[in-house]
Amino acid sequence: PPQGYYTRRGGLGESGDFITSPEISQVFGELIGIWYISEWMAMGKPNTFQLVELGPGRGTLTEDILRVFKQLASVLSKCDVSVHLVEVSPKLSEIQAVMLTGGKVQPNPEDESAYMKGISKTGIPIFWYRDIQDVPPGYSFYLAHEFFDALPIHKFQRTERGWREVLVDIDPEVPDQLRFVLSPSRTPATQNFIQPEETRDHVEVCPEAGVIVQRLASRIEKDGGAALVADYGHDGTKTDTFRGFRNHKLHDVLSAPGTADLTADVDFSYLRKMAQGRAATLGPIKQREFLKNMGIDLRLQVLLQNSGDTATREQLLHSYDMLMNPEKMGDCFNFFALLPHHRLVHPDKKDKPQSKSPLPPVAGFNELLLK
Ligand code: SAH
Predict the structure, then answer these.
(1) Does the CB atom of residue 29 touch ligand 1 within 6 A?
(2) Would the CB of 19 count as within 6 Å of ligand 1?
(3) Is the CB of 56 under 6 A from ligand 1?
């Protein structure tokens, strides 16, 4: 806990170890803000909701979303909105507090399960937690952008003698050097985390992601809302994706532990399985398709028209290319949603198919239709 990457370093941004979509363009967060408003409207405009973000990084995404909420204040006027951030990194939570509240926060508020609270520059209450379980129950919109890829994975390899776990060992030949080894026999993890129908020979499993998705699905089933998960990942097809980044360059995962960002692609097929029964899922859909459906082209045109100088216009076009180009972030990043079952299928559809108006399509996964 004291020497981990996110507690010690957490180097996000241009001067750090990696860069994320919300840090590249404000449009990204704005379109996600529109997604929540669109779902809020489709679900009958409940009079209160919590926006819950897992791993908010520098707080940029929340900041962009809250700006959209402010711009659409007339739409949200009768709705009581609060923000709940789940963040383990003391350093990043400080950066988030400055970004979102100007630094005016109260640590360890006595009456709350949160470790910190404050008010956003736009007047919305914000709370910080270390665990999703500390977030109070209630109608919530969840967001996990580049969060699940940061959680630890188990690695497995199929051998002639059955599944073995890939473990980390100290190299007996070289001092201070770690190495990968295969477990000599089965381990509790090989017995518990590999799906019986698995066909790959090398598999990475993130049980912590599974547990969090189960919690999100239960919360959505019980209290309503929706979750949007965006990350680089695959649908149960990739094998060896575990890697490290330091100063924007690939970094050997076993060297200088705690100083590099360690990451593994998110297995969306696993997340879908973990949500099953409790919540419906949509996706994964490629980032460029999701953003296109959300109207990124129109938003870009408006920003280009409103920007006077060439440098800003070039920056807008460059960041659009980073987000949308299939060779850059457009194809490898995916969007995935958890929704209450009734959001996709009328509960009594089978009995009286004509009696209800059709359910509005879910934006992003279909074209955005805001009325
Ligand atoms: N969503 C942000 C940041 C992504 S980096 C963006 O896209 O820019 C991953 C974030 O998850 C960081 O804020 C990190 O501190 C946080 N994090 C990592 N492990 C966590 C855990 N177990 N619980 C809560 N937050 C965690």
Answers:
(1) no
(2) no
(3) yes
Q: Where are the domains of the chain?
A: 5-152+206-343, 154-203
DSSP string, 222-287: HH-EEEEEEEEEESS------EEEETTEEE-TTSSTTSSEEE--EEHHHHHHHHTTT-EEEEEEEH
Tell me how far the alpha carbon of residue 105 lies from the centroid of ligand 1, in angstroms. Answer: 20
Tell me yes or no: is domain 5-152+206-343 CATH 3.40.1180.10.
no
pLDDT number for residue 17: 85
Q: How far is it, in rounded angstroms, from Cα 290 to Cα 362?
A: 11
List of residues 6+ apart from 116 with CB closer than 8 A: 93, 97, 105, 106, 107, 108, 109, 127, 128
Stated as kind and residue range, the H or E segment containing 143 is: strand 140-145
Q: Which two tokens stand for residue 180?
A: 């990968």
* Ligand 1 close to Cβ of residue 86 (< 6 A): yes
Residue type at 169?
A: D
**How do residues 37-63 score in pLDDT, each as one tens digit?**
999 999 999 999 999 999 999 999 999
| Residue (of 87, 89, 10) closest to 259 by Cα position | 10
CB 239 within 8 A of CB 200: yes
Pocket test for ligand 1, best of 23, 32, 52, 88 (most atoms within 8 A of CB): 88
Paired residues of 339 in beta bridges: 280
Residues of the chain with pLDDT under 50: none
Number of residues in the chain:
371
Q: Give me 364's structure tokens.
A: 């992003």
